[in-house]
Amino acid sequence: MGALALLRQMLRPLRSRGSATSETPSLQRHEGYIAAARKLGLDRPYLFLSFDCDTDLDAAAAEDVHAFLESLGIKATYAVPGAQLLKSPEPYRRLAQRGAEFMNHGGLPHAEWNGDQWVGITFYDSMSPEEAEADILRGHEIVTEVIGIAPVGFRAPHFGCYQKPEQVDLMHRVAANIGYRYCSTTIPSFGLRSGPAYETHGLVEIPCFGSARNPETILDSWTYLTDRKNYTLGNQYLELMSETIDFFLKQKLPAVFTWYADPCHVLNQPPFMRAMERLAKAGVVSVAGVELALMASKNNKHL
User: Fold this and answer.
1) CATH assignment at residue 33
2) pLDDT in tens, 161-193
3) Strand 203-205 vs strand 198-200: parallel, antiparallel, or unpaired?
4) ∠17-118-77 over CA atoms, to 5°?
């Protein structure tokens, strides 16, 4: 691998999920989002929490994270590459038996061990449309085979790198042809324009959410790690979540906190645990992906 290619590989995970900034929470920056949420019939914040499980470490961590969330009454939806499901089927089968929902996350592996850390591989923007479509279809087959239930939602690998209109259109078209109810495969700017859930190709897209302070930056575990080799989650993760919860609840604003993390990033990490406890204590209703899609469809005659 040449120097330029290596640099691109190192930077890609950062580019795929945005970079943290520091701004002041502003109602004005969320006006379009809030108006769209009200049109959906939402009158309060909801939580759609999901986990991208791209490495072997996630398979080992997912059950403990899930048990913690269950103790708080928080639901979790899992996006696991087909290659990881085939490699470590049992932990994910047990989660499915406990009622966890699984999205199609493509068939190919999304990460590989490179010396002293996991690095991203399999980027749809480096593949032809035909190759990306084939990977989506293969992912569907593997989830159905391993979990025993066909998925009804989709998220692309490293999806922040695959956001051009024609790329998003391809994902939605393929998912709709399979018969999916939803995708959650777009960055927060889509939500700021179209709301927390919007119709496309006969399914519902659920964009990822940012924060009250940084509405266009995904509030995920990777972005707020302070150590990306040993996985230490920084306190800013908790601060931004707490601030966002307070911002929407105190003003009685509708929203869907579509947040995701990697299980190995948040296992036994105080910022994550305290943030989840804060959500539960605040009474934010937790929903799985298909529940949110059904809610959006029911409340919007156009869906």
Assistant:
1) 3.20.20.370
2) 999 999 999 999 999 999 999 999 999 999 999
3) antiparallel
4) 55
